[in-house]
Amino acid sequence: MKIHKEQIEVIRNKKGFIIDMDGVIYHGNKLLAGAGEFIGWLVSEKKRFVFLTNSSERTPKELQEKLSRLGIKVNKDVFYTSALATAMFLNSQKPRGSAYIIGEAGLINALYNVGYTMNNVNPDYVVVGESRSYSYERIEHAVNLVLAGAKLIGTNPDLTGPTENGIIPATKALISPIELSTGRNAYFVGKPNPLMMRNALKKLKCNREETLIIGDRMDTDIVAGIESEIDTCLVLSGITTREMLSTFPYQPRFIIEGVKDLMEG
User: Fold this and answer.
1) I need a labelling partner for 10 at 20 to 30 A (CA). Which of 96, 125, 187, 191 fits?
2) Chain mean position to CA 238
3) In whole angstroms, what is the distance from residue 45 CA to residue 17 CA?
4) Are 124 and 83 in contact (CB under 8 A)?
5) What range defines the domain where residue 141 resides?
6) What sign results for the dihedral spanned by CA atoms 169, 232, 203, 194?
7) Looking at the annotation, which residues are catalytic?
8) Residue 63 falls inside a structural domain
9) What's 29's domain CATH number?
């Protein structure tokens, strides 16, 4: 089912774009069809855009370098991650607090940059993001810190994420053993939390009506747009298939196979 030209024009006429990365721009280290042309169009048309990713692994500089390796040059200021949103949230809750982190450089650096210290003895928070250094020992330690009073925070509520080799477990899957073992529910900062969307709109300096969110997930990207009253565009190049759409009680405004569709016609 092809998107109508009239719908493509509505999308192209938007002033601001909030764009997910995994499943929209790339899978792992593989650039998706039309992604380079789409970003080139955003730049040449002087559109305002922000890459809003629930992934917390990489810093904005690392994301900039990753796109550069894939042949796309953008400023590092166009990236906003769940790690940055988590750091902003924690700093607003308890300035210059401490955290035990299960995560990668993007999350560690974001917390350092707002004045948080790393603490594996009596932290204010246990913070979990995507991690390649996930281990039973770290989960065991996190469980006991939460039981001792640390608050449990997840950078995002994604269960899985797409890569060039298939599906991998994401933060909600990784944090669930801590939740189940402690009986405590984590608070998730990333999409669809409205905090992420408000921060993205502030970065864009656009209002809701002139903005579009493009993503591949119904349970984060699309519901985030709907709940924030921002027009939504689902791409079928990531997690969500057309067959899965009927299982959701809400629907995106636009559906396209991938961002390449926006460059056709």
Assistant:
1) 191
2) 13
3) 12
4) no
5) 83-188
6) negative
7) 20, 22
8) no
9) 3.40.50.1000
Q: Which of 188, 209, 229 is the last residue of a domain?
A: 188
Q: Are residues 167 and 201 in the same domain?
A: no
Q: How far apart are CA 202 and CA 187, in angstroms?
A: 23
pLDDT in tens, 239-261: 899 999 999 999 999 999 999 99
Q: Coil, strand or helix: which one is 262?
A: helix
Residue 211 lies in a domain: yes
Within-domain flag for 92: yes
What is the per-residue pLDDT across 51-104, written as a single tens digit (0 to 9) for each?
Answer: 999 999 999 999 999 999 999 999 999 999 999 999 999 999 999 999 999 999
Number of domains in the chain: 2
Helix (H) or strand (E) holding 118: strand 117-118
Look at the block and give the residue holding tokens 């991650």. 81
Structure tokens at 40: 């080139």
Which position has the token pair 């990207």?
221
Mean pLDDT along residues 211-225: 95
